[in-house]
Design brief:
Length: 297
């Protein structure tokens, strides 16, 4: 499996430290996801997602970008459910008909896709839980904010996203065809294989995957989105349309709960289109990489 495909697959799986900060001119994926590794330690201890806070002081409005991981610890989703109670509205991603809410008993929705099934299967391998089965989408403040399947398919077709992704992946593959890149690829594959023979395969595999994922962030988002795509840009536009509606309806504290790949672009939009200022970030542990768990059967 090549590095770019490996990341593309991971992207869709996909302690409070609040500090005031000046408005940023640009945002990166590392502003919204991180791997925590204590100084002097060899192994990472957690994979964390951000709650990035933006405020409009003039209108007394706060909008938080909450990074979503589609497979994570059950405790992670329980913490998010508690956090979401603090908001007047939580705008969530789900390519489905307007107002659709997943069935938390099955983790499915009317637009259940092969991708969702793949994510759920990966959760079993990694001893993690599936987002759609544990986030409480039935809560009154949960608001669907995404394209419907027909809109999404049309946008993908109009933009030529699939061909563009194949083209960018091929370019990246050529760049990585040298001997050094191939050696790194073989080492990564060796680490993945070695994880399956560890005393706790799920824990070892998670540690390998998060490090590899962080190493490929920029490459992965370029393959998926390039300079704009239906997957990122058009779905973000749909979320911002709903955000504008909720603000007009008087909501003062709103969360946008989307995958980390969406958040750099959304952050720019909050500053440029909604005149908001970034004020700080909280971090939530999505994968605890210190606890041993047996892979689910």
């Amino acid at each position: 499996m090549t590095r770019y495909c490996f990341f593309g697959f991971l992207t869709f799986l996909l302690p409070i430290n609040l500090a005031a900060a000046d408005a940023k001119k640009d945002y990166a994926l590392t502003d919204f996801m991180r791997v925590t590794k204590p100084e002097g330690k060899k192994l990472p201890v957690s994979y964390d997602t951000a709650i990035a806070k933006f405020v409009d002081e003039k209108n007394d409005v706060q909008v938080d970008l909450v990074g979503a991981v589609h497979v994570g610890d059950k405790e992670y989703y329980a913490e998010l459910n508690d956090i979401f109670k603090r908001y007047g509205a939580v705008l969530y991603e789900l390519v489905a008909e307007e107002g659709a809410k997943p069935n938390t008993k099955t983790g499915k929705n009317e637009s259940q896709s092969a991708l969702s099934s793949l994510q759920s299967g990966m959760g079993s391998v990694l001893a993690l839980d599936f987002q759609l089965a544990h986030i409480d989408y039935s809560a009154k403040n949960m608001v669907h904010a995404d394209l419907n399947p027909l809109e999404f398919a049309q946008r993908v077709s109009d933009r030529g996203d699939l061909l563009q992704m194949i083209y960018r992946a091929m370019i990246l593959g050529v760049k990585k065809s040298g001997g050094e890149a191939q050696n790194e690829e073989l080492k990564m594959q060796g680490r993945v294989m070695g994880a399956f023979f560890a005393s706790d395969p799920a824990l070892s595999l998670k540690r390998v995957l998060v490090v590899e994922m962080m190493n490929q962030l920029d490459e992965g988002i370029w393959v998926i989105s390039g300079d704009g795509s239906a997957i990122i840009t058009d779905r973000n536009a749909a979320a911002l349309k709903v955000l504008n509606r909720e603000l007009k309806n008087g909501k003062k504290k709103i969360a946008i709960f989307y995958g980390a790949a969406h958040l750099p672009e959304l952050a720019k939009s909050l500053e440029k289109e909604f005149n908001m200022k970034y004020v700080g970030t909280d971090w939530v542990i999505a994968w605890d990489l210190t606890k041993e768990k047996s892979a689910r059967k």
